[in-house]
């Protein structure tokens, strides 16, 4: 309604047609709607008091597309909610501190972001988190299917290659699964690929885009540097990157999480860069819901672009979640080899998640 009124008012102004009074009234319509806030949107963060949850609560409080922000954690939520709620932005903040309050936290949510669960310590793989995080994700998704079955879910908790399939199975069992609304957040892989590529190629970091496909662990993370694009002077710089450079950039992107885990030396994994990635992805979901055009991000989703049932690739976001899972484009020989090499591990992580959800 709002969009079609704006469109027809815009057309009337462009054409200058209609009765003599139509242009001023079109202007009034446009001015009225330009002054309206964006639609009401509720975002819930589960695990809001954690290393990612706290700064993510801050960034979502700063997001003008959010009108209600529900912060849930099993410990420490009241302090985080009180703190963030004093910021004078649009979103009304409420904190929920116990399992009995989880339903209230979720009810009416448009987007649920899940950074709940344990992070890695040096020497661990993401899969080593499975035993604890799988159960956490399963119980949170059971509550989502009960209290906000239509919400978009942004899964951050690791191992993402398994937690997303767990969520899908929980929703299927509850009869609420919508494959267009379940996303594994892999934005941090994209941030890393962009940053490392830009530094190597001597380009401004904000200028570069690199799709990252596959999954979110080790070799399942496959940056497509052959498709790197930059708005400045791209062609000549791309040619200057050797095969060895691309190989090293790929390895560094795949090991980016481990680089941070080791640097933090037992104090957890990436939180700040992850929060930035998580906020970009949630913002993209909200923009899509609100009807903004051309919103494309990489994400680990149900997919038929390879033989694997879940796969990360570029995804176009719209009013109903996923509008389109986009294809992989042309891959270099090195990337083709990487794609074949990642399939066995990704398949087994996906199957592990499905099995857990159905047996436990
Ligand atoms: N997808 C990605 O790219 C990334 C994923 N991660 C993952 O995000 C997760 C969270 O990491 P951090 O925030 O650093 O960990 P953290 O330990 O600092 O925070 C986790 C929070 O989850 C809460 N929690 C635990 N069980 C819960 C439950 N049943 N319901 C609600 N909250 C619960 C804890 O109380 C804690 O506040 C980890 O699994 C980590 O591996 C981390 C970085 C990047
Ligand atoms: O490496 C980890 O455990 C956390 C993570 O997923 C990342 O930083 O990409």
Can you describe what's shown?
- The protein is of the alpha/beta class and 360 residues long.
- It has two domains: 42-185, NAD(P)-binding Rossmann-like Domain (Rossmann fold); 187-349, Alpha-Beta Complex (L-2-Hydroxyisocaproate Dehydrogenase, Chain A, domain 2).
- 48% of the residues lie in helices and 16% in strands.
- The strands form four sheets. Strands 3-2-1-4-5-6 form a six-stranded parallel beta sheet, with helices on both faces. Strands 11-12-13 form a three-stranded antiparallel beta sheet. Strands 7-10 form a two-stranded antiparallel sheet.
- Helix 4 links the parallel strand 2 (68-72) and strand 3.
- Helix 1 crosses helix 2.
- The longest helix is centred in the last third of the chain and has 27 residues, at 333-359.
- The model is unreliable at 1-24 (pLDDT under 50).
- One of its GO terms (molecular function) is L-malate dehydrogenase (NAD+) activity.
- NAD(+) binds at residues 47-53, 73, 133, 156-158, 274.
- It comes from Spirodela intermedia.
- Pfam families: Ldh_1_C, Ldh_1_N.
